[in-house]
């Protein structure tokens, strides 16, 4: 019923920038919080940044000042602008959202399929 589709990953040199996008589609009634997580090889998945429906943001300490999360509620899309990228930012980045579909009152948590970000030194 609901899909989250990420785009924008790729290979970039250290110090470069990338912009990730994640579009939610399906029978969506409302989207609450949206966020980005990442998982590097051999490590646990971690929160990178999150944003509420009202625009309040939260960032991991490791990305503060370098990454910016934003959303377009009209397009059901969340973005992650990543600047000053470091090799340690290399990971698969996953989109996450709390969504209520039109046929239900319960809010469910959804994940995208992930997009690879590789930062070379």
Would you kindly provide a written description of the structure presented here, covering whatever features stand out?
The chain has 121 residues and is mainly beta. The protein is 0% helix and 61% strand. The chain has no helices and eleven strands. The strands form two sheets. Strands 2, 4, 5, 6, 9, 10 and 11 form a seven-stranded mixed sheet that branches. Strands 1-3-8-7 form a four-stranded antiparallel sheet, with no helix packed on it. 31% of the residues are buried.
Topology of helices and strands:
Layout: E1 2-7, E2 10-13, E3 18-26, E4 28-39, E5 46-51, E6 57-59, E7 67-72, E8 77-82, E9 91-101, E10 107-111, E11 115-120
Parallel strand pairs: 2-11
Antiparallel strand pairs: 1-3, 3-8, 4-5, 4-9, 5-6, 7-8, 9-10, 9-11
Brief overview, please?
The protein has 121 residues and is mainly beta.
Number of helices: 0
**H/E series:** EEEEEEEEEEE
Structural class: mainly beta
| Number of extended strands | 11
Principal-axes shape call: elongated
Query: Mean pLDDT, nearest integer?
Result: 97
Observed structural traits:
four-stranded antiparallel sheet; single chain; mainly beta; 121 residues; seven-stranded mixed sheet
């Amino acid at each position: 019923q609901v899909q989250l589709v990420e785009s924008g990953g790729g290979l970039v040199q250290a110090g470069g920038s990338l912009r990730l996008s994640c579009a939610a589609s399906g029978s969506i009634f409302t989207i609450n919080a949206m966020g980005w997580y990442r998982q590097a090889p051999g490590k646990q998945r971690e929160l990178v940044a999150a944003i509420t429906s009202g625009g309040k943001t939260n960032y991991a300490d490791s990305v503060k000042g370098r990454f910016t999360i934003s959303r377009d509620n009209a397009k059901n899309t969340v973005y992650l602008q990543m600047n000053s990228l470091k090799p340690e930012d290399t990971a698969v980045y996953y989109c996450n959202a709390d969504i209520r579909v039109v046929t239900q009152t319960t809010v469910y948590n959804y994940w995208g399929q992930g997009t690879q970000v590789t930062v070379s030194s």
